[in-house]
Amino acid sequence: MAYDYEKSIRPGKLPHIWCPGCGHGIIMKGLIRAMDSCELDLKNTAVVSGIGCASRLPGYLDACTLHTAHGRAAAFATGVKMAKPEMTVLVVGGDGDGTAIGGNHFIHACRRNIDITYIVMNNNIYGMTGGQFSPCTPTGAMASTTPYGNPDPTFDISKLAIGAGATFVARGTAFHATQIDKLIAEGIRHKGTAVIEILDDCPTTYGRRNKFRSVVDMMKRLKDIAVPVAAAAKMTPEQLEGKVLTGVLYKEERPEYTEQYAQVIAKAQGA
Amino acid sequence: MAKKVALMQGNEACAHGALYAGCNFFAGYPITPSTEVAEVLSNELPKVGGKFIQMEDEIGATAALIGAALTGAKALDATSGPGMSLKQELIGYACIAEVPCVIVNVQRGGPSTGMPTGPGQSDMQQAMWGTHGDHAAIAISPASCQEIYEETVRAFNLAEKYRMPVQLQLDEICAHMREPVTFPEPGELEVIDREAPTVSPEDYKPYDDSQGQIPPLASFGSGYRYHVTGLNKAADGFPTTKAELVDAEERRQIAKVMDNLDDILKNEEYQLEDAEVVLFAYGSTSRSARYAVNELRKEGIKAGLFRPITVWPFPDERVAELAEQAKAIVCPEMNLGQMVREVERVAKGACLVSHIGRVDGEPINPGQIIDRVKEVL
C-alpha cells in the first residue's frame, strides 16, 4: 500500500508552489515520513520557516506552522522552544535564508544546542527572487547577479553547523530520497540542535543558467557527487575531489539549552 | 499592612511592572540605556519559573519574543535607538500576525550610535512609522518611576487585549532616575490576559473577525493547529492576494485600535481649565513643563500642561479642542520636531504652535520653556 502522506498535509493546501523538477517536494515527503516515524503529535509540533521557496513548506503541514521573516526562523524557533520546551520544534528553509541573512541566528542556535531540528534545503541559489547567487552558489557558477560567473567562495553548511556547535549534523540529497527521512528522524530524536543539510536542485533558476539540460541532469549531479561517510573513509583525497560526504557527519552529546535553563530556574528558586 | 516601597530606577520599575503584569519571557540584547531591564529580569524571571534569553542580536530578540508569545507567553523585549531600528521589520510582523508583545525603547540621542548615555525623545515618529506598511501602533510614554511601573502593566494589558505589539517609549532620564515606587498589591491593578478561542480546534481560524474585531489567539501547543505568516492573509491565516480580503484585513487591523480610542488613550491634564497657553509635553520633558506651569502661574500667566501618556494613537480630538481654547501650544521635546507635527496637524492653524527642540544630550529645563511662553504670548 502506498504511504499515506495525506494525514500530515493540511486539507486543501496542495498543490504546492514549487516548480516541476524542484526537489523541495521530495524533501517534504521525507520530512513527513520522519515526523511519522518519530510519532510526533502535530498539535505539539511547531514547524518554523523564514522566507523563500523552501520556507513555504510549513503551510502544507497540519501542525503549528510559523512562516516568519527572511532569515529569522532559527530565532523565532528558539523563542518557541524556550517558552514551551515540551513542543517539538522543526525549522525548514533554504541556503540563502539560513546562512546569509539568517547566518547569525543559525550559528547561535547551533552554539546554544537548543533542541530544534533545522532542515536546510540547499539548492545553491535564491530561487524565489529569480536566481541570485547565495553563499552556497559554487564559485564560477552563473546566477542572475553574477553575469561574469560567481566570484564568491562558498559556505559548507554542514561544516559551518559543526563548527558552530551543532551536536547532530547530517547531509543527504534530494536524489537519495529514501535516506532523507532517516537522517531527519535521527535529528529529531537527537537531544540538541540538529542540522540536516539536504542538497537540492533548482532547475528553474540555477539549472538553466548552468548548462543542466534537464532535471534528470541535475539529479544525476546529486547522485554523482554524494559519497557516504563510510565509503569516503576508504577513498583517497584525489578520489574525493569534487565529492560531498553524505550521512551522519557529526554527533555528540552535550547539555541541551532548555535543560540548562531549567537548572537556572532551579538555582533561582533555591533548589 | 504597609505596602512595599522601594527606591529604584525607571528601568527597574519597568521590569517589576512587567512581572506584576505576568511577564514570563524576556528576550533581549544588551544596549545602553536599557540594559537594567534585562538585568533585573534575568534575575527575577527564573524565580517565578519564567524564561530569560539573551539573543545574538536585536532582531533575534524580537523574533524569539514573537515565537514565545505565540506559545502563550507574556513577552518583553527592551532596547534603545539602534536596537529599535533593527527591530522594525519584526514589529511589523507582530502587527500583521497580531501577536501580543511589549517592546521597551529607552530613547537616547541619535541618529545612529548617537549619544548612548544621553537622553532623547527622537524615536517618537519611528514608534508610529518605523516599520514598513500601513498599520496601527500603540505607544506609551510614562514620566515617573511609579508611572513606568504602572504603564508597563497597562502596556501588557493593551498588547493582550488588542493582540498586537505595544511600545513603551521611555527616555534615558526617566529610565535612569531613581524615585520611590510603591508596589501595588496583587489585584490592585487590572491584569488582562489574551482571549483564548472558544471554538473547537477544527473550527478555529486565527483571523476570523465574525465574533469581534480582535479574533482570539490560540497558543501553540494548546491543541490548536494553525498557520502564522507575515504575508497578507485571509481569516484562516493562509496567504492570499485577493484584493478584497487583503484590504479588509489591513483595515480591520487598524480599526481595532482606532475604534477603541476611549480605552487606549490616556492623558494627564494639569491646570488646563483656563489655560491660555498649553504646554504639550510627554516623558521626562513633561516634568520640566509642569514646573514651568507652576512658575508661570505665580506670575499670573495662565499656563497649563497637556501630557499624553498614550502617545500613539495621537489624542487628536482633545488636542484639537485645546488648540481652539488656547492662544498658543508650546511643545518642548528632546528632538528637532516630531510630536509637534501631530499637534500642528490637529491644530489646523487654530492657534500658534511653537516647538522647543533639544538634541544636545541635555534635558529641556523649565527656564527654556518659561522664556518661550513669554515670547509667544
Automatic annotation (TrEMBL), chain A:
Domain Thiamine pyrophosphate enzyme TPP-binding positions: 51-198
Against InterPro entries, the record matches this protein to:
2-oxoacid:Fd_oxidoreductase (IPR051457), THDP-binding (IPR029061), TPP_enzyme_TPP-bd (IPR011766)
Give GO MF terms, alphabetically: oxidoreductase activity, acting on the aldehyde or oxo group of donors, iron-sulfur protein as acceptor; thiamine pyrophosphate binding
One matching Pfam family = TPP_enzyme_C
Is the keyword Oxidoreductase in the record? yes
State the PANTHER family in the record: 2-OXOGLUTARATE OXIDOREDUCTASE SUBUNIT KORB-RELATED, 2-OXOGLUTARATE SYNTHASE SUBUNIT KORB
Q: What is this protein called?
A: 2-oxoacid:ferredoxin oxidoreductase subunit beta
From TrEMBL, chain B:
Q: Name one Pfam family in it.
A: PFOR_II
Instruction: Indicate the segments forming the Pyruvate flavodoxin/ferredoxin oxidoreductase pyrimidine binding domain, all copies.
Output: 16-249
Q: What is its EC number?
A: 1.2.7.3
Task: Answer yes or no on keyword Oxidoreductase.
Answer: yes
Q: Which residue windows are coiled coil?
A: none
Q: Which UniProt key words apply to this protein?
A: Oxidoreductase
Q: Which InterPro entries match?
A: 2-oxoacid_oxidoreductase, PFOR_II, Pyrv_Fd/Flavodoxin_OxRdtase_N, THDP-binding, Transketo_C/PFOR_II
The terms under GO molecular function for this entry are:
2-oxoglutarate synthase activity
Q: Where do the TM regions start and end?
A: none
Q: Which residues form the Pyruvate:ferredoxin oxidoreductase core domain?
A: 275-368
Q: What is this protein called?
A: 2-oxoglutarate synthase subunit alpha
- Organism of origin is Geothermobacter hydrogeniphilus
